[in-house]
Amino acid sequence: MGAVVLLSLFAPAPGRLLGQAAPVTEVGDRDSSALLAIADEYRVPGLEDRRFTHEEYWGAVGSALDAQEGSGRVSVAEVGRSVEGRSIRAVTLGQGPVSVLLWSQMHGDESTATMSLADIIHWWASSPESDPLRRRLADHLAITMIPMLNPDGAERFIRYDALGVDVNRDARRLATPEGRILKAVRDSLQADFGFNLHDQGTRTAGPDGELVGIALLAPAADEERSWGPVRQRARRLSAVIAATLREEIPGRIARYDDSFTPRAFGDNMQRWGTSTVLIESGALPDDPQKQELRRLNVLAILAALESIAEGSLETASTAPYDDLPMNVDIENDLLLVGGQVVTESGVAHPLDVAVVYDDPVARTGPRYGEIGDLTGERALEIVDATGLYLYPELEGGILRRGGEVRLSVRRGASPESELVRRIPELAGE
Ligand SMILES: [Zn+2]
Fold first, then answer.
1. In angstroms, rounded to a whole number, what is the distance separating the alpha carbons of residues 36 and 301?
2. pLDDT tens digits for 6-24?
3. Could you tell me the domains of the chain?
4. What spacing in Å lies between the alpha carbon of 106 and ligand 1's midpoint?
C-alpha cells in the first residue's frame, strides 16, 4: 500500500454533535464544476473497465497513493477478511467530530462507486496542502470508507458472496463475515451518516422512459415508513445529492422504492441511528464502463460531505428528493413496433418484437423477448417500425423467445431492399 499510515480505526470520535456553522451555500448554488474537476484530475488509472478484482483495485489505489506527499493523510486498516480470506480494508480520512461511513460493492458486480471512492482517496492524498475543501472536510468529519465489501463476489463479478448469500439481506442474522464486518465498523464508529453505494439493474427507467442514471433512497426504518429524526436527516442528504445531480443529468434521477426491507443494511442502519442514503448507479447512454457515473458519484459524495461539514444540510429542503419520480423496472431494452416480420417462406406477419440484451449496459447479446402485439408495452428504446419490414435469421426455423436476435430492418417487402437498421448493430453502422 505504499507509505500509508495505520491509525486506530476505532478511536471514539471526540463528540457526537453536528457542525454548528451557519450555512454558507444554499442547495443548488453548489459549485459542481470544482467537484467534477476533482473527479477528472484525480481519476485513478487502471480502473477503466468496471470489472476488476480485489488485487487489481488495491494495486491501482496503492500506485496512486505511492510517492504522494499527502499519503500520510490517508490511513488504511484491515477490518476483517472475506469468506475466501481476502482482506477487507477501511480507509479513514479526517479527524473531525462527525462520523461518516461509506461502503461499496457489497454486491460483487456493482463496482461503480468503488471506482469513485478510489478517486476521492487519491484526491485526499494528492491535493495541495491548502486545498480548502479537503481541509474543511478533515476538520469537521471523520470519514471511513470500505470500498469493495464483498471482494469474493467482485472476483467473479457476481452479486453474492462466496457462501452464496446476498450480503444486503444479512443485516439481521449477520451470518456472513462481510455483514459482520460492516456492522462491527458501524458500531465502533457509532456512525452519524452512512452511504450505501450500489448499482441498480440497468433496465430501470423514469416516467418518460429515460434510462435512470442514479436512483436515491432514504431507506425506511420501520413498516410504517415513518420519518424519525435519523431518517429525516437522510432525506435531506438525499435532497442535497438530488439537487446537485439534476444539474448534470436532468430527467435521469429517480427515487428507489422505500418499502421496509427488514433484512437489508440500509434499513437497519437507519434503525441503529446512522442516517443512511442509498445511492444506486444505473446506466447512462454511451457509458458502457460507467465512467461517467463514476465521475457523478464523486460529485454526489463530495457535495453531500460538504453539506454535512458546513452545516447547510441541517436546513436543506427535502423537496429535491421528495419530488423525484419513482424508479420503474422495465422488462425490455428495445421494442420494434408496428412492422411486418417476414419469415423464411416470404410471408409478412404484423408482429412487434421485444429485444433484451444479455448486457444491457454494453448492449451486447440481444435476445428475443415477447413477440406479438406489444402496443403500449414499455422499453428503454422504442422504434416505430410502421411501414418497415423485419427480416430475422431464424434459429431452427422459428422465432423463439430467448433465442439470439439477428435481424435486419428494411424499407421494403424484399430482403434486398434498403437497410434501415441491423440488430446486433455492426461496427460502422
Ligand atoms: Zn446492490
1. 11
2. 444 443 333 333 333 444 3
3. 32-328 (3.40.630.10), 331-423 (2.30.40.10)
4. 7
